[in-house]
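SAMPLE LOG
Freezer: B-3
Tube label: C17
Construct: single chain, 99 aa
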Amino acid sequence: MDDDKFLIHIEIAEKSYGIWIKREEEQVVREAAKVIRNKMIQYRQRYAKSDVDVKDLLAMVALQLSINNLQLEDKNDTLPFSEKIQVLTQKLELYLKEN
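STRUCTURE (predicted):
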């Protein structure tokens, strides 16, 4: 293992997982596991009256987090702005050459 990595244990769906991570990633990894646990609790409460398997809960959590991730990617897409800035820069350069 790399010297900058170390082993942590996180719990997801009542199971402990040992994973090797970089030290600077520890906080975000632990927070991610906490988000998953909280989402699992929400889904368990929502479907408390039905017999829902842990795998089904994890699938719903994965789907919800994937949707959230894709929505954030769309929000952070700067390509349209970059293209507009490039067009405006070209127009400005053309204007300055003419004057």
